[in-house]
Design a protein that fits this description.
- Two copies of one chain form a homodimer.
- Helix content of chain A is 44%, strand content 16%.
- The first copy, chain A, is an alpha/beta fold.
- In chain A, helix 1 packs across helix 2, helix 5 packs across helix 12 and helix 7 packs parallel to helix 8.
- The interface between A and B is large, with 54 and 54 residues.
- Strand 2 of chain A pairs antiparallel with strand 2 of chain B.
- The structure holds a DNA duplex (16 and 16 nucleotides).
Chain lengths: 325, 325
Amino acid sequence: MKPKLDDVAKLANVSKTTVSRVLNKRGYLSQETIDKVYDAMEKLNYQPNTVARQLYNKKTNIIGLLFPTVSNPFFGELVEELEKKLYSQGYKVIIGNSMNDPEKEKNYLNQLLSNQVDGLIVGTHNQNIQQYQNENLPIVAIDRIMNQDIPVIESDNYSGGKQATERLIQKGAKKIIHTTGPDTLDTPANRRREAYEETMTYHGLQPIHYSVDFNISYTEKTGIFNQIFIDHPDVDGVFASNDVDALLIMQIAKKFNKNIPEDLLIVGYDGSKIMRNMFPNLTTIVQPIEEIANKALEVLNLRLEKQETLSEYILPVSIWNGSTC
Amino acid sequence: MKPKLDDVAKLANVSKTTVSRVLNKRGYLSQETIDKVYDAMEKLNYQPNTVARQLYNKKTNIIGLLFPTVSNPFFGELVEELEKKLYSQGYKVIIGNSMNDPEKEKNYLNQLLSNQVDGLIVGTHNQNIQQYQNENLPIVAIDRIMNQDIPVIESDNYSGGKQATERLIQKGAKKIIHTTGPDTLDTPANRRREAYEETMTYHGLQPIHYSVDFNISYTEKTGIFNQIFIDHPDVDGVFASNDVDALLIMQIAKKFNKNIPEDLLIVGYDGSKIMRNMFPNLTTIVQPIEEIANKALEVLNLRLEKQETLSEYILPVSIWNGSTC
DNA sequence: TTGTAAGCGTTATCAG
DNA sequence: CTGATAACGCTTACAA
């Protein structure tokens, strides 16, 4: 059996209180007592029970992170950044990969809301989850609209969409296709599409978009992207909704004998560090992952301290000049 | 204040015991009581306190995952796979990205060992952490040697190293350089290097390796990889320790005007799904990520049930035939 | 400087 | 079928 406070107390011939005081370095204690207690803890290899402490303190020092998938580099880097910073603040993180499955998200939520976490950072993309309302748990959303009470951190999607589209047009593309997430969601990322459509229209070009569900397999995705080239053999520009898709499309373009950038221009989205290093050629819109993480934590901390926050924080994007556009 | 069991009990005019019974669907209860209680819970928007349950049950239903970094696709996919499967078993996961920093790992460990988690899956690469001994917490290691008591899941590193090296040789490379992790660690991954060296020697070739610390920046990494081409302008083959590095090296090769595969053959390692889809051209040794995750959980479950396990489980690797070698 | 006792929010035993 | 009550392991008034 794991030793508990009481065992230490008995071995050291003091009370539980005293041991607790030593443990938490609180109150006045004689050096002698302190030594005795440490000795006993050592002997028993004592480790305080975190759960008991959590119960008393009503604080778990755990933050929940709910994201679609950690295997997409954008989320991977974001989660890593968040974890790193939370760790240095003394928090641990529980991660839920919702895979954008509403059931799973709802489930996670219910569990996490039950005093399991001190706060929540949510970056999944589902609608109609009302649970987020009924708690006064500090929550921050990343790139996701939830409700009035929950602040959203996002990068400037409209500007990103505009920059991408203008870049493609300026480099001579006329038939530009945009891949997006599912049409049905109301997320800040939709502003990319708005920007794309407005920019296209402004230049007298016809916007065309293909929406791709998250959480489908690579095989299915490849199927959809193939279809683009079948439906539009004359496509000469693609604005992909993320870098992984951009690269997938590049692979498929090859099969259709399209050379990049001669026959087809491509712009991606996200610009995670790992992508920019592995494939610097890909022209892409860079979301400031580190700044997003910083801002999310800054706002979460405000909420944890019950302070006021804005309801939206928009961070600037930049463009990475590769050779695909 | 959050409502508690007692509040529900009062509102429903029953005892805490009864509410608890309803909550856990245990024992005999009249339908009337059940309805009353559910009503009260509804009205108060009651949610049971997980921490209190954890304390009583001495079980948190949390598994700790300690990995170097979730932003490398190999670990990203592995962690995702583990999370997905643990979730379906009713576990949540606390993730620690150790960045291979021994301090951080030790710290995480200490915290997690304190009754915070029911089990641990460790895939970081540090030495000399003795803490793992003194607990009877179920632990499983992935690709990491810890101590006799802790079962290790790994893919067949020797075979992987041999296949990679032989492939390079067979395709005509003579001056083949191998990049590895730090020399100082005793990990199963070292068997790749052994295999590389033995295979090279067997073919009368001179093994040369460059060791690259984890947790250095991309800039530093690039520096080291640059050095390879400066030190060995006649290099015609590279066996990289992972796919990310393989791609980094490909970028650098370009700068040195080496065409792939004409002037330089490259074989990577890991073969995560995302990599194989984004860069199908990269010839690489594929670790069976899903099987590793499955086996790790199978073994962890055995440990959780206090059953015997083997001390080592080795899973087969395969080769992905790209065009870089 | 140290100890006693109550309480954090559950669950299970045992009695009715 | 239902209710007191103790217990899970720790922290903190309050007392001494």
